[in-house]
Structure prediction request, 224 residues.
Amino acid sequence: MAISIVKQPNKVSWSRNPLVFEFHTDQVILEAGRPLIFTLDFSQVDNVVDSELHTPEKTYYYYLDWSFTLIVKQTKFLFSCEYASPINKFKIPHRIGPTETKQDWLVKVKNAILNAFNLSSLFVGEVDGQKIKFSSIENDVSLDVQIQDVTNDLAVAIETPQTPVSKNYTPNLKIFVELIAIDLSLAERSVVSAALVPDINGNASWDFSKPLSSLCLSDGPDIL
Prediction:
């Protein structure tokens, strides 16, 4: 296990001032884990004209509605691509074809999915061809995603190329430190020890000014 001293007091210091050692260890994380990665495939989802409205200025195209349900850790998120305001569902905008490319539209789809409830706190997403790839922010083995209730003719498909592995931390990790006082004859006089618990980043600090002051006061002067 690698432990390093990041900061230490000056060689000559007042014992009643803070005397802080700062330590760092690289052993806080026992296993880094890996995120959940899944993709939603929209290659079968394209503009299918349901009806047309012709005006002197232009022709308006109305496309078929479609929907699917995403299940994240047993919580259902219902998504619907429709012109009306969906009830108890999250809305995905229709693609404006043929002027809007599918890539540009998929960016809107990705944003609509991530904006649903708290999904943006769980995943990040990016468009990859006709798919949207999502990666979990945390490495959590309990995280799983499923899809159901897809529209048959405009089916969204799911793939999971990588399952998650949780991040594991070293149990009961402590940094053991000792303060040893040496007298003028180079004999060891006193030992003060501490077991420091590093934070999640592997950092720990120890201010030994109080035990050092007590040691110095036992001899009379309060400076070192």
